[in-house]
Design brief:
The structure is a single chain. This protein is mostly beta strands and 159 residues long. The chain has a single domain, classed as Clam (outer membrane lipoprotein receptor (LolB), chain A), CATH 2.50.20. The protein has no helices and eleven strands. Strands 6-5-4-3-2-1-11-10-9-8-7 form an eleven-stranded antiparallel sheet, with no helix packed on it. The two termini are 24 Å apart. One of its GO terms (biological process) is cell-matrix adhesion. GO terms for molecular function: calcium ion binding.
């Protein structure tokens, strides 16, 4: 079970992602990379994203301030503001099942990891985190979106 598996209070990672969706018979491909800075104590998240969606480049900077429940997004030189829901710690759910204990890397450089399986908003999630510290390494999500389309998402995180 995922009991108590929450990352350190503050951490940052650099991520790559690949996502494919299908909606109404049309497929969409998203590729990208971003930096993520998370502080559970201060309830703040900052990110800088570069995505290519169906061949179109998108650059986005985002600050999520859960103390004021406000998200600020900067895209194409324009800043927009939108409300956020209440803060939820970024943790593996308590009802998640451990499906694998293994290692990333080899020899003296290997890192012990755990892979959890759980459902989030109807999507099946495989989340691989460090065995010590619960730092996210890989996330793979799949299923049917609430809009009825197929969804596949793969995210690699270098912390």
């Amino acid at each position: 079970m995922g009991e108590g598996c929450c990352p350190y209070d503050a951490w940052e990672g650099f991520e790559g992602l690949l996502s494919g969706t299908e909606q109404g018979g049309k497929s969409h491909l998203t590729q990208g990379s971003f930096s993520l800075h998370l502080n559970n104590t201060k309830k703040m998240v900052a990110s800088e994203v570069e995505l290519v969606v169906d061949g179109f480049l998108i650059r986005l900077k985002s600050i999520q301030d859960y103390n004021t429940r406000t998200e600020y997004d900067i895209m194409n030189g324009k800043c927009t503001k939108k409300p956020l829901e209440q803060w939820k710690p970024k943790c593996v759910p308590d009802d998640a099942q451990v499906v694998q204990n293994t290692y990333f890397g080899a020899g003296s450089e290997k890192v012990a990891v755990k892979t959890y399986l759980y459902t989030d908003n109807g999507l099946q999630v495989y989340s691989t985190v460090t065995a010590s510290g619960c730092i996210p390494i890989v996330a793979a999500l799949s299923g049917i979106t609430v809009e009825g389309g197929n969804y596949v998402f793969l995210q690699f995180i270098l912390t």
